[in-house]
Design brief:
This protein has 131 residues and is α+β, with helices and mostly antiparallel strands. The chain has 3 helices and 6 strands. 28% of the residues lie in helices and 28% in strands.
């Protein structure tokens, strides 16, 4: 049974329906943003790792904002890279958003992501300072 105080948002990803997940879920002051890939509304994916990382954070932060949060509320991030060579781009994009916030953060190199065009995917957790 769903808790009526739990809020969910969708980013419109086709995977949300088929897999059965929400882009982000808020319960109380806690927000959890699912793994977020660098997809543009038209389905395109920019091959540039920096552009991908920036797009991932744009989507994830938009979901957070829809649930009342901001980058200042983020307490943990995770970045998944398909190659160590993308670390500098992923780090730059993360720093552009979180340099002053400094959440706990993990960056992993993985064997691959769901779509072979993706070289970066991100997640975040936040604790909202206001209800």
């Amino acid at each position: 049974m769903n808790d009526p105080s739990t809020e969910r948002v969708s980013s419109g990803s086709p995977y949300e329906q088929t897999v059965g997940f929400s882009r982000a879920v808020r319960t109380g002051r806690h927000v959890f943003v699912s793994g977020t890939a660098p997809i543009w509304p038209d389905g395109q994916v920019d091959p540039d790792p920096l552009a991908q990382a920036r797009r991932c954070w744009e989507i994830a932060l938009d979901a957070l904002a829809q649930l009342g949060g901001s980058p200042a509320d983020v307490v943990r991030t995770r970045s998944f890279l398909t190659d160590r060579a993308h670390e500098a781009a992923a780090s730059q994009a993360h720093g552009e958003v979180f340099a002053d916030v400094r959440p706990a953060s993990t960056m992993l190199v993985v064997a691959g992501l769901l779509d072979e065009r993706w070289v970066v995917e991100v997640e975040l957790d936040a604790v909202l300072t206001r209800r």
